[in-house]
């Protein structure tokens, strides 16, 4: 029996059940957020594929949806890894949510020079984690022609290492994503960079 002003005894099984329910709901919320990101990325590539087909038919800057501020500039294929993606114009945060993005001011993918492509490590550019030296990468340009590249090297660099965008040297493609691949928080100062030369 409780005296006046005494606190009631806590029901430990109920408290444990409530705590377990809260943890479960938090886990479902986190999982749902992660699944949403992947679902959005996959759906976007379907819409971008349609815009790419219009590009191949001659339409300039074919937008994948009416309010898009980007458009496909190339198609990227890595047959060895079953990768087939569309590269979008621009590499800002909005664009790379929907696909790998071409860095303006560098060579267009498939053209002479150094084409720099950026993207997220947990969606479109996740395949870079398993890409080895010697892997062939293919790029289809807007005119329908394909160009082949071979991976020559990979490195972990600082995000401030902007020399990777230079246009001197051989024709190449530079693919950039955040590092490490299994980090719990997005961003960070390190980048995983794959260098592929035209063949």
Question: How would you describe what is shown here?
Answer:
The chain is α+β, with helices and mostly antiparallel strands. The protein has one domain: Sortase, Chain: A (Beta Barrel). About 25% of the residues lie in helices and about 30% in strands. The protein is built from two helices and eight strands; from the N terminus they run H-E-E-H-E-E-E-E-E-E. An eight-stranded mixed barrel has the order 1-2-3-4-7-8-6-5. The mean pLDDT is about 85.
Quick overview:
The chain is of the alpha+beta class and 199 residues long. Helices cover 25% and strands 28% of the residues. It has two helices and eight strands.
Number of helices: 2
The CATH homologous superfamily corresponds to Sortase
Uncertain stretches: none
Mean pLDDT: 87
Radius of gyration, whole Å: 23 Å
Highest-level CATH class: Mainly Beta
What characterizes the major β-sheet?
8 strands, mixed, barrel
- Architecture, according to CATH? Beta Barrel
Task: Looking at this protein, list some descriptive labels.
eight-stranded mixed β-barrel; Sortase, Chain: A; about 200 residues; 8 strands; alpha+beta
Set out the fold topology.
Blueprint: H1 12-56, E1 72-78, E2 83-89, H2 93-96, E3 101-102, E4 114-118, E5 136-140, E6 146-158, E7 172-179, E8 190-198
Parallel strand pairs: 2-3, 4-7
Antiparallel strand pairs: 1-2, 1-5, 3-4, 5-6, 6-8, 7-8
């Amino acid at each position: 029996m409780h005296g006046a002003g005494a606190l009631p005894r806590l029901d430990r099984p109920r408290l444990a059940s409530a705590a377990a329910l809260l943890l479960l709901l938090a886990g479902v919320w986190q999982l749902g957020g992660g699944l949403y990101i992947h679902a959005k990325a996959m759906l976007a590539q379907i819409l971008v594929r349609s815009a790419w087909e219009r590009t191949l038919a001659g339409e300039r800057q074919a937008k994948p949806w009416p309010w898009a501020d980007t458009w496909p500039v190339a198609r990227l294929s890595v047959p060895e890894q079953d990768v087939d993606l569309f590269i979008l114009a621009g590499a800002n945060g909005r664009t790379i949510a929907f696909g790998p993005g071409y860095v303006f001011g560098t060579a267009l993918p498939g053209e002479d020079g150094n084409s720099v492509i950026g993207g997220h490590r947990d969606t479109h550019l996740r395949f870079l984690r398993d890409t080895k030296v010697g892997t062939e990468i293919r790029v289809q340009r807007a005119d329908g022609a394909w160009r082949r590249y071979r991976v020559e090297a990979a490195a972990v660099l600082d995000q401030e290492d902007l020399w990777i965008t230079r246009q001197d040297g051989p024709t190449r493609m530079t693919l950039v994503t955040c590092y490490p691949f299994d980090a719990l928080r997005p961003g960070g100062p390190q980048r995983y960079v794959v260098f592929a030369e035209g063949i």
